């Protein structure tokens, strides 16, 4: 679809990697500190701030479909640039949010910006990468994401000492810088072959039953994935009695991702197909979750986090690769927009059910309940994915020898 030289593709993919780091750093620079500033610092109600964060996720994931179909219609580059500018305005406005209405509006605006660029960015990566190199690039993308996720909160915490407004403004500057990078280095990437209207693109997705089934079954992966930021921190606090132990969970996960994401992906590419990597990764994640039910010390919990994180290293680039492979080139934006709904549904269910099962387990004297339930959902989802798509993976021809990106 895109008549680009290898050098142009390399330059475009480099811009995606760098801008992806800036996006994640800017996001995690401000979002985790919203509750710190408004609840701990200003004494606002925690429930109200929780609603702000819930609306933010719902708007971004729920409206990603709009960004996808508009990307098909008008091109990925323009939608990415527009989305980055809208998010920069949202986080910039947060610097002046001294009342609840303005805070909610700025968070929703930032989320809508993410909805505009998320699906076009994913579709652009799929259009720029060759199938033989796609999984490896997604692994590199994961490294840049985790690097931004690690450094963003550190920079935000330092800036918080001189005022939350500075945190929000520097976060917005990250998106402005990313916008400039995309404008100068990313060519006008076509993510649909031919002229596809919004309605015809959606019809194409809705008629693709294998893709819809894959996205539906992938909600089990996202259900487990969100437990890293919900259930694991709760367990760390309960087992250690110290809130500082929560940071250990994220440090272990981020450290493993930075050190092992690319090596693990390279090894997996040699011996496993993407679907096999996804299912094996989901089973390891399930084992990590289920193991917490037997953990009675912080060391045992850390071992479960390691197992969970190793599974995520296998599953994350594989699920992105499979989504790209299953998406039709006629309307990749629409396909990736629908794919984002998997995170919206699975993540929302995971957050709600994880918290509800934790409370139910505590009241009924069954603390293992949330962990065993989450593990079961992961095992069932992995088994269903392999049962439905495994035959196609086994009968597919061998992939060509991998070349360096």
Automatic annotation (TrEMBL):
Localization recorded for this chain is:
Cell membrane
Which keywords appear in this protein's UniProt record, sorted alphabetically?
A: Cell membrane, Membrane, Transmembrane, Transmembrane helix, Transport
**Major facilitator superfamily (MFS) profile domain segment(s):** 12-393
Q: Does the keyword Membrane apply?
A: yes
N-terminal signal peptide: none
Record membrane topology: Multi-pass membrane protein
GO MF terms listed in the record are:
transmembrane transporter activity
Question: GO cellular-component terms in the record?
Answer: plasma membrane
CDD domains for the chain? MFS_MdtH_MDR_like (cd17329)
Q: Which segments cross the bilayer?
A: 12-35, 41-59, 74-94, 100-117, 137-161, 167-189, 210-230, 242-262, 274-292, 298-317, 329-349, 369-389
The protein here is known as DHA1 family multidrug resistance protein-like MFS transporter
InterPro entries, sorted: MFS (IPR011701), MFS_dom (IPR020846), MFS_trans_sf (IPR036259), MFS_Transporters (IPR050171)
């Amino acid at each position: 679809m895109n008549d680009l030289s290898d050098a142009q593709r390399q330059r475009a993919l480099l811009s995606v990697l760098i801008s992806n780091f800036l996006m994640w750093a800017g996001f995690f620079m401000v979002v985790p500190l919203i509750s710190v500033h408004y609840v701990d610092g200003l004494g606002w109600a925690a429930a109200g701030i929780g609603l702000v964060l819930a609306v933010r996720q719902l708007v971004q994931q729920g409206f990603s479909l709009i960004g996808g179909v508009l990307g098909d219609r008008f091109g990925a580059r323009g939608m990415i640039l527009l989305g980055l500018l809208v998010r920069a305005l949202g986080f910039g406005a947060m610097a002046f949010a001294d009342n609840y209405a303005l805070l909610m509006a700025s968070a929703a605006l930032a989320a809508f910006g993410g909805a505009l660029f998320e699906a076009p960015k994913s579709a652009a990566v799929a259009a720029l990468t060759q199938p033989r190199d796609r999984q490896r690039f997604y692994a590199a993308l994961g490294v840049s994401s985790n690097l931004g996720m690690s450094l963003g909160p550190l920079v935000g915490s330092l800036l918080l000492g001189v005022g939350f407004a500075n945190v929000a403004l520097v976060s917005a500057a990250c998106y402005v810088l990313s916008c400039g990078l995309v404008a100068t280095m990313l060519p006008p990437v076509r993510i649909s072959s031919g002229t596809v209207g919004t309605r015809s693109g959606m019809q194409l997705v809705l008629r693709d039953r294998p893709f819809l089934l894959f996205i539906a079954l992938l909600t089990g992966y996202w259900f487990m994935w969100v437990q890293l930021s919900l259930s694991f921190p709760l367990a760390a606090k309960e087992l250690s009695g110290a809130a500082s132990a929560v940071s250990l969970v994220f440090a272990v996960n981020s450290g493993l991702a930075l050190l092992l994401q690319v090596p693990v992906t390279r090894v997996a590419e040699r011996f496993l197909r993407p679907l096999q990597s996804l299912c094996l990764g989901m089973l390891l994640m399930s084992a990590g979750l289920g193991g917490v039910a037997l953990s009675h010390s912080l060391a045992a919990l850390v071992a479960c986090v390691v197992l969970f994180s190793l599974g995520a290293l296998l599953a994350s680039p594989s699920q992105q690769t499979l989504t790209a492979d299953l998406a039709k080139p006629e309307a990749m934006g629409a396909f990736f927009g629908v794919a984002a709904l998997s995170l919206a549904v699975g993540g929302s269910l995971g957050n709600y059910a994880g918290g509800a099962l934790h409370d139910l387990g505590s009241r009924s004297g069954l603390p293992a309940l949330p962990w065993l339930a989450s593990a079961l959902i992961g095992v069932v989802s992995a088994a269903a994915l392999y049962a439905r798509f495994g035959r196609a993976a086994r009968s597919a021809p061998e992939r060509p020898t991998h070349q360096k990106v």
